[in-house]
Amino acid sequence: MSAPAVAGLQPKEGTVSKPDPFRHPQPSRKKQAAVGERLGRLLAQRGLGWRDLAHRTGFSETLLARLADGSWQPPLGALWKVANAIDVRLSALFDFGHAEDQMVMPAEQIPRFEAPDGHFLSQPLAAFQAGQGFEFYRAELAVAAIHEFAAHPPHTHENLAVHAGSIEVVVGREAPLILAAGDCMRFLADVPHAYRNVGPVPAVLYMVLGYAGLEAI
Question: Is pTM beyond 0.70 here?
Answer without folding.
Answer: yes
